Amino acid sequence: MTKPSGDYQPPKQISKAEREARKAFREVDAVKAMSEHAVAEKAFAQNRERLKAERLAREAAADPVPKKQSKAKSKSK
User: Fold this and answer.
1) Is 21 within a domain?
2) Number of domains within the chain
3) Is the whole-model pTM more than 0.85?
4) Residue 62 has what DSSP assignment?
5) Domain housing 27
């Protein structure tokens, strides 16, 4: 639902104390977001390393795959 064009209200002016409070809350939120990101990044890195180690162990245990021989090209005219 949109406001009628005649009901324009200028933005409410906020006080200095309210600006300072918003700034403080933003800083706390930023620190919290950064710490959550760091935890997620660390978990991702640990999982990637675990999966890499498992893959390398599987590859080492498996028989080596023989290389495919290239087919000789035949010239036909």
Assistant:
1) yes
2) 1
3) no
4) S
5) 15-62
Sole residue written with tokens 């300072």: 20
The two structure tokens encoding residue 17 = 């104390």
CA torsion angle 50 54 55 56 (round to 10): 100
Q: Is residue 39 part of a domain?
A: yes
Q: Which residue has the tokens 């918003």?
A: 22
Q: CB neighbours of 22 closer than 8 A, spacing ≥ 6?
A: 14
> pLDDT tens across 9-62, in order?
888 899 999 999 999 999 999 999 999 999 999 999 999 999 999 999 999 998
Is residue 5 in some structural domain?
A: no
Asked whether residue 74 is assigned to any structural domain, the reply reads no
